[in-house]
Specification:
Elements: H1 2-21, H2 41-51, E1 55-56, E2 65-66, H3 68-77, H4 87-90, E3 95-96, E4 107-110, E5 122-128, E6 131-136, E7 141-146, H5 152-155, E8 156-161, H6 165-172
Parallel strand pairs: 1-2
Antiparallel strand pairs: 3-8, 4-5, 4-8, 5-6, 6-7
Length: 177
């Protein structure tokens, strides 16, 4: 009887302990639903505008909350453009772009770590006039910042173009050769 009583007591406690130790976040990468069959600057602008002000949550790729690379992954994925999920990997693909040649839709990468080591830790989307949109842990959400403000002005690493002129021309011409 004593053994039965202990078993009845231990089972609920075990369940509670396991439930309390369960992971808080779902780290599965979820591909965004494709909304625009062809990539374009206008489609990107629409996606960025729809997500401005949404919450920052690390390891989220939308649609209700984002981390920095989750936002870029989501917005480009909605345009049927598959890019890597992690900012460091995003910075290694695409076409490299010089800082003074940035165009709307280029991804801008930074090292925002405590000690500048030159390692990509943050990404945003260049939106023109020296500004970029990004999911900011510091600001708690998707915001627009200036490339000239600290820490971004001193922590810029590289820029990459995934939304090429060919992709934009393809959309404008309706897919004609």
């Amino acid at each position: 009887m004593n053994c039965l009583f202990r078993g009845m007591l231990l089972l609920p406690l075990s369940v509670l302990m396991v439930a309390g130790c369960a992971p808080k976040y779902d780290y599965t990468i979820h591909k965004p639903r494709v909304v625009y069959q062809q990539p374009s600057r206008q489609a990107l602008k629409t996606s960025l505008n729809e997500n401005l002000g949404k919450k920052y949550i690390w390891a989220e790729e939308g649609p209700e909350a984002f981390d920095c690379s989750g936002l870029t992954y989501y917005c480009f994925g909605r345009m049927n453009l598959e890019i890597p999920r992690i900012s460091r990997e995003q910075s290694e693909e695409g076409v490299e772009v010089a800082f003074d040649a940035l165009q709307y839709g280029d991804l801008v990468f930074f090292d925002t770590g405590k000690n500048f080591t030159g390692t990509v830790t943050h990404v945003g989307v260049y939106i023109g006039d020296g500004k970029f949109q990004h999911a900011s842990s510091r600001n708690g959400g998707v915001v627009i910042s200036s490339l000239s403000e600290s820490p971004y002005s001193k922590r810029f690493i590289t820029a990459r173009r995934y939304l090429t002129d060919e992709a934009h021309a393809q959309q404008t011409l309706g897919g004609r050769d």
